[in-house]
Amino acid sequence: MSEEDICERHAWTSVGVVTRDGGVCRIWECENCPVWTAQPFDAEHERSWDETWLAER
Ligand SMILES: [Zn+2]
Prior knowledge:
Helix content: under 10%
Number of domains: 1
Bound molecules: zinc ion
Oligomer: single chain
Distance between the termini: 48 Å
Strand content: 35-45%
Largest sheet: 3 strands, antiparallel
């Protein structure tokens, strides 16, 4: 792989979620080159499962 294989503007697509360093991250990868990144989830926005309607299903 040379640097020419890295695009100027990546075509990000989400490929899943992982835990990393004790936190949750969404993994994004470029459709056109090998670049990927991990987007950390914001802990401030986490809601407890019991507070959601999901828990009542
Ligand atoms: Zn790319």
